[in-house]
Amino acid sequence: MTKNIFSVFVALFLCSLTFVSCSSDDEGGGSDSYIVVNGVGCDIHDAQCSFHETISDDLGEFEIPSHASFTMQLIYDESLYYFSFTVDGASSSDVINLNENLVTDGNVDVDSFRMLTSSELSSRYSDEDGKLSIVEKGSNYVVVRFENFSFIKDTGKSETKYVMNGEVKFSDINAE
Questions:
Q1: I need a labelling partner for 41 at 20 to 30 A (CA). Which of 3, 8, 88, 115 fits?
Q2: Higher pLDDT, 62 or 169
Q3: In terms of DSSP bridges, do strands 40-52 and 159-172 run parallel, antiparallel, or are they unpaired?
Q4: Cβ proximity of 73 and 46 under 8 Å
């Protein structure tokens, strides 16, 4: 069963990589994206999101609850990094209230923060804290604000705490 869930997540990840956002920043909110990680300003190369209803197989063997997936590629520490997180229960942007701290309800889970060229399959992420909120919504995007949003990355050999601040405009890959 775990193998099936992992396969679904890998398939969703690979599908999301095939969708490249070609929209201009003039569409919608006109928000300038910026992110600071551990005090270091980072260039953002791509930021996408997708909202999902509950996903289950025909046999009822597994079920993935409704959630929103967010992915971002950024330059941090002179390397291209991949960052992803999910927001539980967010089947669409309509169910999220603007400026609501999604971390306080335990709905935010960091899934990955790694150099794009590394797999790091054994890393775990925990202790999400601070504030993460959607501050703007459009028909094909959401703007996420990170305010001292922190998490710990545990590689099994070491633990590193990351703190993020800034606003990022995520293009919704499922928007029409």
A1: 88
A2: 169
A3: parallel
A4: yes
Does the pLDDT value for residue 14 go beyond 60? no
Q: What is the dihedral of CA 138, 90, 145, 42, to 10 degrees?
A: -100
- Reference 70, options 129, 175, 124, 143; nearest CA is 143
Q: Is the pTM of the predicted complex or chain greater than 0.90? A: no
Sequence letter at residue 113: F
Mean per-residue pLDDT for 65-85?
Answer: 93
CA dist 58 and 105 (Å) reads 31
Span 27-46, average pLDDT: 82
C-alpha dihedral sign at 80, 78, 46, 106: positive
155 vs 6: CA distance, rounded Å: 19
User: Which residues is 63 bridged to in the sheet?
Assistant: 56
Q: What pLDDT, in 10s, does the model give residues 150-165?
A: 999 998 889 999 999 9
Helix residue ranges per DSSP H, the chain: 2-18
Q: What is the mean pLDDT of residues 21-43?
A: 68
